[in-house]
Write a structure and sequence with these properties.
alpha/beta, Rossmann fold, 2 domains, five-stranded parallel β-sheet, two-stranded antiparallel sheet, 9 helices, 9 strands, about 45% helix
């Protein structure tokens, strides 16, 4: 595994994987402690992204959007002047730490303390242990786009392009495929034939067109494919 070391505050070594070794993963963040430092616009975006985790936002003050998330029960607020003792206490047992204050020296101190405790860090203006991609969510479809921190604008540009392609009917097709796969297991023993039916449905433009207006119609058309192979 290729490792690169660099200095934090000029004296503490921290190791990160070379960018070429970064690997995209989809992680279940439910019940994982995520700590965001900074109550401004950047902190708000991160808090919105991690609203399904056990998310804490620590700051001296909080933007209205962050307060609204807290009022909705999605995140917890920790009002603090962010001294070292508070930071150490706040990041205890954290899965991920995100320094997102407007104080670079403070962000570096948070980074150092998290690193000493082997806590993953997402840096807002640099490459850390974790890169958070530009995300598209459509039903059960999740697409993450990253330029490895080199051009957030390109990531956003690609996301906007893909959002025009990956419409609701793609999410409906995922639902349809899931239901059809279960039905195929009951009705067709041959794995080769089951796979053939799956791809026939995926390549059937009539079914795609039906998904635009009626899921039930698309389902009925898919059943016809199964019937032609039923044993």
């Amino acid at each position: 595994m290729t490792i690169k070391s660099y200095l934090v505050n000029g004296n503490s070594k921290r190791q990160v994987l070379e960018l070429s070794k970064m690997l995209p993963l989809i992680i279940d963040v439910e019940n994982r402690k995520v700590v965001i430092f900074g109550g401004g616009a950047v902190g708000e975006r991160k808090a919105e992204l991690f609203r399904d985790a056990d998310t804490y936002v620590a700051s001296r003050d909080f933007a209205p959007g962050i307060q609204k998330l807290a009022e909705g029960g999605f995140i917890k607020l920790v009002k603090s002047d962010l001294n070292d003792i508070d930071i150490k206490s706040i990041i205890k047992d954290a899965f991920l730490v995100i320094p997102a204050t407007d104080d670079l020296a403070l962000n570096s101190r948070i980074l150092k303390m998290a690193g000493e405790r082997n806590i993953l860090v997402n840096q807002v203006n640099a490459v850390g242990d974790v890169l958070i991609p530009s995300v598209i969510k459509k039903g059960d479809i999740i697409i993450g786009i990253s330029t490895q921190g080199k051009s957030p604008a390109v990531s956003k540009f690609i996301r906007k392009k893909l959002e025009q392609i990956v419409t609701q009917k793609y999410a409906d097709m995922v639902r349809l495929q899931d239901e059809i796969r279960e039905l195929l297991k009951e009705r067709i023993t041959s794995q080769k034939i089951r796979e053939k039916v799956i791809w026939e449905i995926l390549n059937d433009e009539v079914i795609w067109d039906a998904l635009e207006t009626s899921y039930d119609k698309a389902y009925a058309l898919s059943i016809a494919h199964i019937d032609s192979y039923s044993e």
